[in-house]
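Working notes for the structural subgroup meeting. M.R. asked for a predicted model of this chain before we commit to crystallization trials. I am recording the input and output together here so anyone reviewing the notebook later can reproduce the run.

Input as submitted:
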Amino acid sequence: MSAQLAAGTYRCRDVSKSVAAAVRTGVTWIDTAPSYRSGSAESALRQVLDSCPQVRVSTKVGFVPDSDRRAAQDAGALRHGLDRGHCLARPYISWQLTRSRARLGRVPDLVFVHNPEHGRTDRAGLSRTLTEAFEELERAADAGEIGGYGVATWAGLSSGMLTVPELTELAGTVGGPRHHFRAVQFPVSLIHLAVVADALDGHGPLAEAREAGLDVFASAPLGGGELLGAMTEELVRVVDSEASPAQAALLVPLSAPGVSHVLLSASTTAHWADVRGATARRSLSPGRLRKVVDVLGT
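Returned structure, recorded in token form:
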């Protein structure tokens, strides 16, 4: 199976405990954000990252944690009253990257522009916002302050506000042929099956990302835990009759064409051992994925 499980920290109650359990089962990528766990997620990862230099880490810029707002304003990186909880202006991105490196104790391998469509309704304004963000992230990558960057979105790609070709073209315009745009992150799951159906037909964001050579981080693979209660015996059999419910749910994003990492939050080593079993199973064939799509619809 080409895709790998990675540790997400969005829904972790105890970030350090959950991530340590993931690393013990062989997970080598952690995804976080300054805004997760009320602004404490990055700092909670420091000890794990210090002891596991082989583990790679991605973080984000965009959402402004309440705990950081005053410091950012005092530093002149955030204008009073104008951030609305989300900011992608160059001064704020630069300030947040410095803070993230200090909290993580290392240079992040990737930095995602976090939900750039947030609060924006026109594509022209979104393009201007992304241009400014990409300019700052290219500067940071050139300076060795980040390894590369990407875009993490919940609905930007599915709504048409964003497209992978446009993002790649923008990165080339801003950073030239050797730009540092490396990845996209968006939901792929039994709940978000349309993107899988599109990929099987050779179009949509998964196919476009693969064509562009981008890594794809699949978010919300279990629908925030919602899918576990929906995995009936019949549904498990459609996917893989020998898999556990969690494994069956994860096999769909793990097998989807173009996905490189599937982000998951699990709290204990036992939970991680169960879901890691999905990566040991044979990938679902395109025919099997089509059957899942046909049974559940999109």
